[in-house]
Amino acid sequence: MSEAKLLKTKPKVTHVIFDVDGLILDTERVYTECLEEICSQFGKTFTWDIKSKQMGRKERESAQIFIDYFNLSITVDEYIEKLRAKLDEKLPSTPLLPGADKLIRHLHHHKIPIALATGSDSWGYSRKISGHKELFSLFHHCVLSSDDPDVKHGKPAPDCFLVCAQRFGDNPRPDEIEVLRSNLARLYRSCGINFELRYLSLKMQQMAPRQVSLQV
């Protein structure tokens, strides 16, 4: 099918769900720095292999993955205490990533409902957005996977996004919702590409990767 025909048949997007870490905020760099420091305390090296296993997981699940991966003799609570002590210092100064502010304000200006679906808990989320409260106030709602009882499974399971979609007040159809995720952004940046937030999406109906151009 030609690109022109594909655009004609594509359902109209009426709602947008955003991931947070690595998409809106440069928190992935902060988490990496903190976890590298924790690893060094135990004579370990923090690599992409373990990072990829932890990304998007609920806090306690992520902690257990880290402990098991490195075979550490600490508890989940001890790990969380160490990590939070470092995050408490660094998260409040986390900058926005290129293109995020512009896209969020563009969608809000055109009255397209937007929401957040993140693996964070309320403790981490409040610190991440502390320097950008006005921007984050533009979102209709936010689902915090680590705190939300309706989210049974953390990412990469789609529960967080599905729960988020259900909380739009006007009950949009699955094919009307775009989910913007950070996976592609991470890939671009890891390759040294100067990437701006323009096309990262999943269709709620399919929960399978595809590209869409969002003109901002």
UniProtKB/TrEMBL annotation:
GO terms for molecular function: phosphatase activity. InterPro entries: HAD-like_sf, HAD_sf, PGP-like_dom2. It comes from the Eukaryota. Pfam families: Hydrolase. This is Uncharacterized protein. The gene is ORF137030.
